[in-house]
Amino acid sequence: MRQQLLHERRNLLLAGLLVMLIAGILISMNTGKMALHPGEVLNTLFGQGTERQNLVVFKFRLPRIVLAALVGMGMAISGAVLQGLLRNDLADPGMLGINAGSGLMVLLFITLFGLSGLSSAFLLPVMAFVGGLLAALLIYILAYRSRSAPSSTRLVLTGAAINVGLSALTLFLTLKLDNEQYVFAQKWQAGYLWGTEWQYIALLAPWVLILVSYIWYKSLVLNTLNLGTEIATGVGAHVKKEFLGLVLAAVAIASGCVALGGSIVFLGLISPHIARKLVGPDHKLLLPASALIGGIIMVAADTIARTVSFGADIPAGIIVTILSVPYFLYLLMR
């Protein structure tokens, strides 16, 4: 009876998070420098808007909001998977250097080929995935010790060092860019949602949704791996195969989000922590809760960055960092 009540309570929390995300999207749709009241937004969504309203909603606001939600959900899921696999609460694609590896590859691509053309839209997520994968491989090689699997602590510390090294290399490369590329690179590193055209979103959406579906399908495997290698092996799990598949999926999601949403730090760290407090450690519930929380935070941050005047164009990633740092310090002090 108690278990059933607890299960119902957690399902209600998930439903509440979904309502919060939808409400955040609706508020963001109605908020901006060009005022539109809710009725105008609804009419526009149902095809009854004026030319100006169609331009504001479908050209500027809706693609940016969709991108923010996808990036937030993707980064949160990636963080939840890495924390579960490494059994370390500080594991996060940003802290481990995966974002930095993806960012370095994206920067190299933009420096060499620019951003024009549809080919860039197709190649950027792929290049980001290659960069993130190379960073993950480098971390594993440097943390590896013969006759023993690398510990989660060693992986996290090695990832932090790789993150610093790749960030320094990225900074070095930005000094060689022209003014326009330099401004873009600086904004991108601060978490600038730049891929706000539908052609980019049409690529990122299936990329994120397919990988998230695969990870959620493997949620019971994640629960088993979270118990430790020996126990997981003892109950019959193919540890190496499942670990590799889930790591690749987590790196691919984070890399795709970084390619179009810039380097967002802390989001993949704090979203699973908040979700774990709400719904517990079962990945069947933890993964969707993390995704919803990540989406809520990212949509809220982008709405603030888009509507509040700071005297400059502030990337959403900076707002996420400002909102996340107090919670991160709280985690460190526990």
Please characterize this protein's 3D structure.
- The chain contains 14 helices and no strands.
- By secondary structure, it is an all-alpha fold.
- Helix 13 crosses helix 14.
- The two termini are 33 Å apart.
Secondary structure layout plus pairing:
Layout lengths: L1 H28 L8 H8 L5 H36 L11 H16 L4 H26 L8 H23 L4 H11 L8 H20 L1 H7 L3 H6 L4 H23 L5 H13 L3 H25 L8 H18 L1
Order of SSEs, N→C? HHHHHHHHHHHHHH
- Fraction of residues in helix: over 70%
Shape, principal axes of CA atoms: globular
Regions with pLDDT < 50 over 5+ consecutive residues? none
Rounded Rg = 20 Å
The largest sheet, given as strand count, sense and whether it forms a barrel, is: none
Q: What is the straight-line distance between the termini?
A: 33 Å
Number of helices: 14
What proportion strand? Answer: under 5%
- Tell me how many strands there are: 0
**Class inferred from helices and paired strands:** mainly alpha
What value does the average pLDDT take?
84
